[in-house]
Amino acid sequence: MQAVGPHTGNSLRRLLGMGGAPNRQRRPPFVFWAPALLVSLAMVLPLVYLVERSLDGGGEVVDLLLRQRTLEILFRSAVLVVVVTVASALIAVPLAWLTVRTDLPLRRFWSVVTVLPLVIPSYVGAFLLVVALGPRGMLHGFLERFVDIERLPDISGLVGAALALTLLSFPYTLLSVRASLWGQDPALEEMSRALGNGRWRTLWRVTLPLLRPSIAAGSLLVALYTLSDFGAVSLLRYETFTWAIFLQYETAFNRALAAGLSLVMIAMALGLVVIEAQARGRSRYYRAATGAARPTSLVALGRLKWPAFGFTAAVTALSLAAPLSLLAFWAIRGVAAGEPVRLLWGNALNSVYASGLAAIVAVVAAVPVVMFTLRFPGRLSWVVERLSYTGFALPGIAVALALIFFGARFATPLYQTLFLLVFAYVVLFFPQALGAVRSSYLQVSPRLGEAAYGLGKSPLAIIWHISLPLMLPGMLAGGALVFLTAMKELPATLLLSPIGYGTLATSIWAAAEEAFFAQAAVPALLLVAVSAVPTAFLILREPRRGR
């Protein structure tokens, strides 16, 4: 048997880029930096277009960016991002722990349904919020039966936008934290309890600190999603950068000014990435000694079982059951009025196919980026990591226009093909796969690779048989995030879909735009139903925990 000494272990880590302390060698292996750099260059393609468009505007763009109005929009966008990110974490972390580590009743059912709000388009969620809680909405009509009330307070503005986006985006953090909980070593918690710490003290001092990278990664996704959202903020009249960009595109017809505002959004996104890196810290999140690959025992909630059940049910009711009930009400009312029901299975198949391809490509592309940026820190990896997050901060319309420009000028055979649509999805949602995969990879100990190397395994075999299987929870979570978000993407789908390639998102928008709410409700319900199938498969295939 080949011995694994200090020098052998260091060379192995350099070769594999496996877990452990970051390697600061000047020249990382080509097999790591080349694919990672290629992926980041693909992600930066829309940025090149925006810079070119901004330069076309010259001094006019500079004047726009220095206006007081622009600074006010910047402040409003930042406030919304902070509120939604914090609120989502406060909802997602307890839900993840309850559905993975406790004896919560029906926890497998809650594991599926608490993720599904992610597939509800923000413009649908915001419209339902206005209809239900607006000054003369459904709640007002119900309360009028009992009390004399002229109108309810206006839900528009920061409160409404924050509520809608929080209820629809907390699953970003939820999926990331769930993947991290499944990958944690049970020996760490068992050791804490052996030292006299109870379950709750162990949760606070051991489990939560180990979730730090996944919470940071999920919160970054929530922040970037909030920054780039258009549907909710426009319907709820809360002016952010995406709304201002849309107005420049649609009313002023000034793409140069819109590109300049988009560059400010990218700068904000890069700032969020830096904050997330600081929150993640430099600690190690894998076991340093030997351990057992076995599930942890479930925590008995005791007297807290039913309050926890009520919390989970309340979140599900507000984020999923209420929107679906309103959609079902409109659909039933439309059928009663004689409107034909069109299930649009062809559009559903198109949505699943394009979104599934995007999820696979995004996860495959995320693996080399994660390995390179985590294990070979330096200037190049710093640039690669930050550029990888630029697409998620951009409105879909900006990315779509950039790819139309690229396809029409440099890649004519790809213009108006499914390839460009899938590529747009990957650019827009790649950070979702990146964050989830990175959270899992941080838990991979280098000692596993060193042991396999000592047994004669090749570096590629170690990556294939050890690293990737241990990263699988994060890869599945990342793929699910990309799939669910791509299913509801609208601007990029409208502009880049091949001729005649309808999707559920475009069907919902076409009906809603004409105020045919009953016709919009049916594809919206079908969108949730179709998305629930792969979500349930991913959740239910997770190993069962014993007591």
Explain what you see.
With 547 residues, the protein is mostly helical. The protein has a single domain, classed as MetI-like (MetI-like fold). Helix content is 73%, strand content 0%. The chain has 25 helices and no strands. Helix 17 packs across helix 22 (459-488). The longest helix has 34 residues, at 68-101. It is globular, with a radius of gyration of 24 Å.
CATH class bucket? Mainly Alpha
Derived structural class? mainly alpha
Helical stretch tally: 25
Question: What is the fourth-level CATH superfamily?
Answer: MetI-like
Under the CATH scheme, the architecture is Orthogonal Bundle
Strand content: under 5%
The description of the largest β-sheet is: none
Mean pLDDT: 77
CATH-defined topology: MetI-like fold
Shape: globular
Domain count, please report it: 1
Total E-strand runs? 0
Radius of gyration: 24 Å
Order of helices and strands: HHHHHHHHHHHHHHHHHHHHHHHHH
Q: Which ranges are low-confidence, i.e. pLDDT below 50, for 5 or more consecutive residues?
A: 1-21, 284-292
Percent range of helical residues: over 70%
Termini distance?
39 Å
Topology summary:
Elements: H1 6-16, H2 30-43, H3 45-57, H4 59-65, H5 68-101, H6 107-113, H7 122-133, H8 138-143, H9 158-183, H10 186-194, H11 199-210, H12 212-228, H13 231-235, H14 241-250, H15 255-280, H16 305-336, H17 345-375, H18 379-387, H19 396-409, H20 418-441, H21 446-454, H22 459-488, H23 491-496, H24 504-513, H25 517-540
Helix pairs in contact: 1-21, 2-17, 2-18, 3-15, 3-19, 4-15, 5-6, 5-9, 5-12, 6-25, 7-9, 9-12, 9-20, 9-22, 10-11, 12-15, 12-20, 14-15, 16-25, 17-18, 17-20, 17-22, 19-20, 20-22, 21-22, 22-25, 24-25
